[in-house]
Amino acid sequence: RDKLGQALTHWQSVQEAAAQGELSFVQAMRLLAGAAVGATDTEVLEASTAQWSQVIAGDFLAEVLAGLGHPDSLGPADPGPELRATLRPYQQVGVKWLYLLDRLGLGGCLADDMGLGKTIQVLALLLLKRQARQAAGGPAVPSLLVVPASLLGNWQAELRRFAPSLRVLIAHPSAMPGAELAELGPAALGELELCITSYGAVVRYPVFAQSRWDLVILDEAQAIKNPAAKQTRAVKALRSRTRLLLSGTPVENRLGDL
Question: Would you place residue 41 in the very low, low, confident or very high pLDDT band (cuts 50, 70, 90)?
């Protein structure tokens, strides 16, 4: 009887948290895995009770999990004519997967090989996010794209070609005076949808760490494979709702790179 009472109290508290929107997707995954949700005694089942107390995904969560594992089964995720390109079938699946991750508040690593269109999939995602925000009537929160300096021109060209309607700022000394960049603050980002900069600029200029971003995207993300590097620490300090990595070589030398 005591064990049943303890289990009932535990699951009632979880149910209340879910009803109030306080149960995140990650916490739900921990519950399914049998792990503790939090650190307090009221959130942790006794080991002996956990052995016979089980969590089973409901219809909605089961559908989400199926989508993560098989994104080709997800519903359409098409930005329409705002994307001036036709996505190939595998790119459509990639966009569906990225869009699902973003809606769940999860990060991910898109590791398609070079030349398979990681850039265009990200542009499609940004357009989908804009459409969803406009439909909900929410304010614009800019995303941040961090790339090697040598690829800034390539991203600008791809944006002009495939998604010219996105409101973009190149926040880099090659595109604006260094003094102006040094004085740039979060308020100046205004109605921007995407800010693009380099890994080196993230280290040098405070605006990137001071701002809160919707999505932080790292291109050639193997640039932060060394956790002790100053560049890696600066990138990891960026504040964002979700994070996306792009890399054709997520593991270069050892599994620790990933």
Answer: very low
The answer to whether 254 and 228 have CB atoms below 8 angstroms apart is no
- Show Cβ contacts of residue 102 under 8 Å, excluding neighbours closer than 6 positions: 125, 129, 215, 242, 244
Measured distance CA(126)–CA(144) in Å, rounded: 11
User: How far from 19 is each of 11, 13, 241, CA to CA, in Å?
Assistant: 12, 10, 22
DSSP state of 44: S
Classify 141 as helix, strand or coil.
coil
The per-residue pLDDT for range 199-226, each reduced to its tens digit, is: 999 999 988 999 999 999 999 999 999 8
pLDDT digits (tens, 9 = 90+) for 127-175: 999 998 888 888 888 999 999 999 999 999 999 999 999 999 999 998 8
Decide if 97 contacts 85 (C-beta within 8 A).
no
Q: Which helix (H) or strand (E) holds 59?
A: helix 59-69
DSSP string, 158-201: HHHHH-TTS-EEE-STTTS-HHHHHH--GGGGTT-SEEEEEHHH
Model-level pTM greater than 0.85?
no
Residue spans of beta strands (DSSP E) within 57-141: 108-110
